[in-house]
Amino acid sequence: MDKIVVLTGAGISAESGLSTFRDSGGLWDSYDIMDVASIEGWNRNCELVLEFYNERRKQAHNAKPNAGHLALVELERYYDVTIITQNVDNLHEKAGSSKVIHLHGELSKVRSSIDEHDVYDICDARINIGDYCKKGSQLRPHIVWFGELVPKMDEAIELAENANIFIILGTSLAVYPAAGLIDYVPNHTPIYVVDPVKHNTIFRSSVSFIEGNATVGVPQLVKQLIEDK
């Protein structure tokens, strides 16, 4: 079965009502990003960081998958599909996607402040000052902050290298190292980009653009790929 690798970004979640940090008036708009998404911000004011992610976790828990998410699930009936997402919500899982890799962590999980492998699933619960892991350290969001290593990057690179089809949707390819995955896709592998605006950031002859947002463009692309089987 052909392997499809899908790289998703904030654009697909935005269509389910989850604001990105670039949205004017969105949740991120009230914060300096380095205050809530860096280890330095955590060390300065962990209570602020916890409250920020408590709010994001609640919003993500209430959000529902959109037509873009659901179309990717349909694709699994015909292809071996793995989703590599930069998003920290679980909308792909809610939709029913069976293989999802979260590069930047997950809102529904927390981890020890001293052991990144000591991870707990908390669903939509809050984390407060004084909530400790089994080793006695303060729990922190299971999020990869700016300046931290991306633990699942090697796995994502291997998937990109072995993809028969590579799809990019909901991302401007502006955030590294995730944006660098495109460099590992073999030259002969077809690449499809779903975006409301056609851009020229990928200099490959094998790139096809589907102009439109995720709720329109992804079902269109999935229909095309199924018909091509």
Describe the structure.
- The protein is of the alpha/beta class.
- It contains eight helices and nine strands.
- It has helices spanning 10-14, 33-36, 39-44, 46-62, 67-75, 91-95, 153-161, 214-228; strands at 3-8, 80-85, 100-102, 105-112, 119-121, 139-143, 165-169, 191-195, 207-211.
- The strands form two sheets. The protein has a six-stranded parallel β-sheet, sandwiched between helices. A three-stranded antiparallel β-sheet has the order 5-4-6.
- Strand 4 (105-112) and strand 5 (119-121) form a beta hairpin.
- It is elongated.
- The termini are close together.
Short description:
By secondary structure, the protein is α/β, with parallel strands linked by helices. It has helices at residues 10-14, 33-36, 39-44, 46-62, 67-75, 91-95, 153-161, 214-228; strands spanning 3-8, 80-85, 100-102, 105-112, 119-121, 139-143, 165-169, 191-195, 207-211. 31% of the residues lie in helices and 20% in strands.
List keywords for this structure.
alpha/beta; 9 strands; 229 residues; 3-stranded antiparallel sheet; 6-stranded parallel sheet
Write the layout of secondary structure elements.
Blueprint: E1 3-8, H1 10-14, H2 33-36, H3 39-44, H4 46-62, H5 67-75, E2 80-85, H6 91-95, E3 100-102, E4 105-112, E5 119-121, E6 139-143, H7 153-161, E7 165-169, E8 191-195, E9 207-211, H8 214-228
Parallel strand pairs: 1-2, 1-7, 2-3, 7-8, 8-9
Antiparallel strand pairs: 4-5, 4-6
Helix pairs in contact: 5-8
